[in-house]
Amino acid sequence: VVNIAVLASGRGTNLQSIINNVENGYIHDANIKAVISDVRDAHALERAKKYGISAVFIDPSEFSDKSEYEKELIKKLEEFNTDLVLLAGFMRILGNKFVRFYKHRILNIHPSLLPAFKGLRAQKQALDYGVKVSGCTVHYVTEDMDSGPIILQECVPVYEDDTEETLENRILQEEHEIYPEAVKLWVEGKV
Ligand code: 3YE
């Protein structure tokens, strides 16, 4: 059985899609052991509690630097015997030590067709650039942000009258499909 921990900073809609797909058996032989957030009032923590999943807030302001924060993060993750770490709207760049500790065991989802539009507000970047197709990418987390090996991608059209929000929502629908699919593949040892 694979023990999953999810790191989230926000609403947790991708967390919800993972939860749903564990509950309905699409992802089997896996448990979501914990949701850990760097944001005290992240809605992702509320979602976790609703399903009896441990919800943990680790306050970055209590640590002197990134490395100390990540030591605590690893300590917590190890308490839950974490095998697989999923970033789901987690808004921090993970340092080398963390990435090495969970080598090949951290996945992230990003709202663009990587390697295009890395970093923040990828949907706005896509609109500003004028691309006619965008999408989302599930990838392994490596030291360089949004640059690790790609596991799955899905594309969506970009329309003339799209706003950041309409494009974000169209991409999000696909995120909710491919993230559980990628997790299933990983859990089954097929990535
Ligand atoms: N970390 C590594 N590799 C990756 N994190 C994410 C993907 C990914 C990753 O592929 N190593 C905001 C952008 C973060 C930012 O720059 N945050 C700063 C400051 C945080 C703060 O003080 O609030 C930071 O140093 O983390 C997930 C997406 C991360 C986007």
Which key features would you list for this structure?
37% helix; 23% strand; 191 residues; alpha/beta; single chain; 6 helices; 7-stranded mixed beta sheet
General description of the model:
This protein has 191 residues and is α/β, with parallel strands linked by helices. The chain is 37% helix and 23% strand. It is built from 6 helices and 7 strands, in the order E-H-E-H-E-H-E-H-E-H-E-E-H. Strand 1, helix 1 and strand 2 form a beta-alpha-beta unit. The longest helix is centred in the C-terminal third of the chain and has 24 residues.
Gyration radius (Cα, Å) is 16 Å
Q: Main β-sheet: number of strands, strand sense, barrel status?
A: 7 strands, mixed
In DSSP terms (H or I, runs of 4 or more residues), the helix count works out at 6
The tally of strands reads 7
User: What structural class is derived from the secondary structure elements?
Assistant: alpha/beta
Helical content stands at 25-40%
Neighbour order of strands in the largest sheet: 3-2-1-4-5-6-7
Which spans have pLDDT < 50 for at least 5 consecutive residues? none
Determine the strand fraction and express it as a percent band.
15-25%
Mean pLDDT: 98
Bound molecules: ligand 3YE
| Alpha carbon gap, first and last residue | 17 Å
* Helix-strand string: EHEHEHEHEHEEH
Q: Tell me, what's the shape? A: globular
